[in-house]
Amino acid sequence: MPPTLNSIISRLHVKQLRLLIAIEEHGSLLGAAKQLAMTQPGASKALHEIETTFGASLFERSNRGLEPNAVGRCVIRYARLIQSDLAHLREEMVGIMRGHGGRVSVGVIMGAVPLLTDAITVVTDAQPDMSIEIVEDTSATLLSLIDAGRLDLAICRTSVSQTPYLYDSTFVRDETLAVIANAAHPLAHEARVALGDLTDYRWVVYRANMPMRLLLEREFHDAGLRFPAQLLETTSAFATVSLLQKNASLVALVSTDVARFYTGHGVACTLPLQLASRSEPYELVTRRGAPLSHGAQMLMEAIVSRGAQQVE
């Protein structure tokens, strides 16, 4: 069994984590020692101390040098995360000391990307030196990143979580949906399109059990239609529009914000299909009770403000 967390925290040093990363990069103790300005005996002793701390061997010796084993790859992956977090810590401290917002990590579901980019434009105009990391993914993944402290906030839905009480959430606005296609789609110039007209076309959709996918399945069920079997599943807005560009027979269900963005830039058209169902609203989500930086608070205010403006 590995040692306790308290034991690891009390014995582990940041320089030791740098050594692990360097060994993986160089494949040898000598190369790692040179990079960190250590002697080879010193590096060897440090590696022994690290392996003692974790209670496991982290590398295997081969004719190619030192290669991390399964446990070693795991430890090195987290060593890189810790190193990255420390870099972000310094960046945010510098920002605070210079009087601007520092650094913010924000997650977003595909449909809310236009809303987020509008809010970011407002914030970066006011704070040009602010750094912002954007992670686009599903609500479930974004909530897990909030749990792990990897995101400061996210525009997503807490309804997908079995523990929504772990989050503070604020209503941003309702989401309305549209069906988009290539401008050369056979139905692109029809005055009106019914769902039954689209049963023979291949759909680009979110994967099973996600809110937007469930909504589309309900639309087909309520219309007495069989849900299409041949699907292209993705959570990426870029993958969606790229697929539509390559194949004029595809259709995709997206938020009206995304549809408006694509049609405004001439890369897709919105089909004149009226959907009976409404999607769940967007929420602005943070970890309950977690302290927020000045930059995160600024971005949250901008998101709520932009959401309210778009409703009016």
UniProtKB/TrEMBL annotation:
Coiled coil: none annotated. This is LysR family transcriptional regulator. GO terms for molecular function: DNA binding; DNA-binding transcription factor activity. It comes from Pandoraea nosoerga. The keyword Transcription applies. Gene3D superfamilies: 3.40.190.290, Winged helix-like DNA-binding domain superfamily/Winged helix DNA-binding domain. Keywords: DNA-binding, Transcription, Transcription regulation. Residues 12-69 form the HTH lysR-type domain. One of its GO terms (cellular component) is cytosol. InterPro entries: HTH-type_LysR_regulators, LysR_HTH_N, LysR_subst-bd, WH-like_DNA-bd_sf, WH_DNA-bd_sf. SUPFAM superfamilies: Periplasmic binding protein-like II, Winged helix' DNA-binding domain. It holds the Pfam family HTH_1. It comes from the Bacteria. Belongs to the LysR transcriptional regulatory family.
